[in-house]
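seq:
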Amino acid sequence: MISFRLLRIPVTVRPSFLLIAALLGLSAARVSLVFAWIAVVFVSILLHEMGHALTARAFGSEVEIELNAIGGLTSWTVPEEEFGPGRRAVVAAAGSGVGVVFGGLVWLFASLTGPYFGLAGFVVTNLIYVNLFWGLLNWLPIRPLDGGHLFSSLLEKIAPRRGETIANIVFMITAAAGLTAALYFGLTFVALLAGWLLFGELTRGRPRRPQVPIPPMSFDRPPPDPEPEEVDG
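struct:
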């Protein structure tokens, strides 16, 4: 596990993050490109999470970042109910917003100074792809993506009583659509992720079987030993 601070924000990188990034990059032709892909994913997701973290910190919260098998996670100390739906929406949108801006800047830089080939071309192309494509994809209304948080915050604002019910229906439909699209295009990893999200939606809110309490056990005290009889003799 790797830990460091960036702009005074604690960052933890778990081995599972590097493992999944390497598995996603196994289609590269050379080992050097796999390491380059890991670096691209690391920089892109870290920038994404920094967008969340810096925005939440601007609202007065302490923050920390963790990069793990499912990507990145930004935690803050202020409870979500104290943020309000407007601030939560801004925090959710900030991650992909930073990524899209960064990807656009890389594309503009490459257009003015390129073209690039070889390793440099691989890095530039994937920095643009990951930050623009993944950033826009992350705004889709799918739980637990940023778009899911944005959609939930919007519903909390305009339909506070029925928001959760509407969100559950929409998230189930979008997860099923994502699974269908991933299977159609042959995206195995995305299909596994979408299937996991759909399973979570299908089982969300399902009542658990109540546990039968175990009755307390008690033991009666054994009867006292009989006193020996006195025999005259």
